[in-house]
Amino acid sequence: METLRPLGVLQVYSSIMIKWLITLLVALFVLSLLAPRLSRYGLGRLPGDLRIPLRGRLYYVPFATTVLLSLLLWGIGKLL
Asked: What's the Cα-to-Cα distance from 16 to each of 6, 34, 66, rounded to whole Å?
Protein backbone atom coordinates (compact mmCIF):
# COMPACT_ATOMS: atom_id res chain seq x y z
CA MET A 1 0.00 0.00 0.00
CA GLU A 2 2.86 2.40 0.63
CA THR A 3 3.78 2.28 -3.05
CA LEU A 4 0.54 4.14 -3.81
CA ARG A 5 1.51 7.08 -1.59
CA PRO A 6 4.11 9.45 -3.02
CA LEU A 7 7.18 9.75 -0.80
CA GLY A 8 7.32 13.53 -1.12
CA VAL A 9 4.04 13.95 0.77
CA LEU A 10 5.48 12.43 3.95
CA GLN A 11 8.52 14.68 3.78
CA VAL A 12 6.41 17.82 3.33
CA TYR A 13 4.18 17.01 6.32
CA SER A 14 7.13 16.15 8.55
CA SER A 15 8.96 19.38 7.66
CA ILE A 16 5.82 21.43 8.42
CA MET A 17 5.42 19.65 11.76
CA ILE A 18 9.06 20.30 12.66
CA LYS A 19 8.66 24.01 11.87
CA TRP A 20 5.60 24.26 14.14
CA LEU A 21 7.35 22.35 16.91
CA ILE A 22 10.38 24.66 16.75
CA THR A 23 8.09 27.70 16.75
CA LEU A 24 6.24 26.43 19.82
CA LEU A 25 9.48 25.69 21.68
CA VAL A 26 10.90 29.13 20.88
CA ALA A 27 7.66 30.80 22.01
CA LEU A 28 7.69 28.84 25.27
CA PHE A 29 11.34 29.73 25.87
CA VAL A 30 10.77 33.46 25.24
CA LEU A 31 7.62 33.53 27.37
CA SER A 32 9.36 31.72 30.21
CA LEU A 33 12.05 34.41 30.17
CA LEU A 34 9.46 37.19 30.11
CA ALA A 35 7.09 35.60 32.66
CA PRO A 36 8.24 37.65 35.67
CA ARG A 37 7.69 40.90 33.75
CA LEU A 38 4.38 39.77 32.23
CA SER A 39 2.96 38.79 35.63
CA ARG A 40 2.24 42.47 36.28
CA TYR A 41 -0.46 42.22 33.60
CA GLY A 42 -1.83 38.86 34.78
CA LEU A 43 -0.02 36.80 32.16
CA GLY A 44 2.02 33.91 33.47
CA ARG A 45 -0.48 33.27 36.25
CA LEU A 46 -3.25 31.72 34.15
CA PRO A 47 -4.66 28.30 35.11
CA GLY A 48 -2.59 26.45 32.47
CA ASP A 49 0.74 28.04 33.38
CA LEU A 50 3.17 25.98 35.41
CA ARG A 51 5.73 27.15 37.96
CA ILE A 52 8.26 24.48 38.83
CA PRO A 53 10.57 25.06 41.80
CA LEU A 54 13.73 23.03 41.28
CA ARG A 55 17.00 23.30 43.22
CA GLY A 56 16.32 26.78 44.51
CA ARG A 57 15.19 28.21 41.16
CA LEU A 58 11.71 28.82 39.83
CA TYR A 59 11.07 27.71 36.25
CA TYR A 60 8.06 28.98 34.30
CA VAL A 61 6.26 26.92 31.64
CA PRO A 62 3.52 29.24 30.36
CA PHE A 63 1.26 26.96 28.28
CA ALA A 64 -1.96 28.97 28.69
CA THR A 65 -0.20 32.30 28.15
CA THR A 66 1.33 30.91 24.93
CA VAL A 67 -2.10 29.93 23.62
CA LEU A 68 -3.65 33.26 24.62
CA LEU A 69 -0.91 35.35 23.00
CA SER A 70 -0.95 33.14 19.89
CA LEU A 71 -4.69 33.72 19.48
CA LEU A 72 -4.20 37.44 20.03
CA LEU A 73 -1.45 37.65 17.41
CA TRP A 74 -3.48 35.49 15.01
CA GLY A 75 -6.45 37.86 15.38
CA ILE A 76 -4.26 40.90 14.76
CA GLY A 77 -2.80 39.19 11.70
CA LYS A 78 -6.28 38.46 10.32
CA LEU A 79 -7.29 42.12 10.76
CA LEU A 80 -4.24 43.39 8.91
From this structure: 17, 27, 20
- In single-letter form, the type of residue at position 3 comes to T
**Which residues form the domain of 53?**
2-79
Q: What is the DSSP letter of 12?
A: H
Total structural domains in the chain? Answer: 1
Which residues, at least 6 apart from 43, have a Cβ–Cβ distance to it below 8 Å?
35, 62, 65, 68, 69
Average pLDDT per block of 10 residues along the chain, 80 residues long:
56 74 82 77 83 88 85 87
- pTM of the complete model: 0.56
SS3 of residue 32 by DSSP? helix
Q: Report the chain's terminal Cα–Cα distance, integer Å.
A: 44
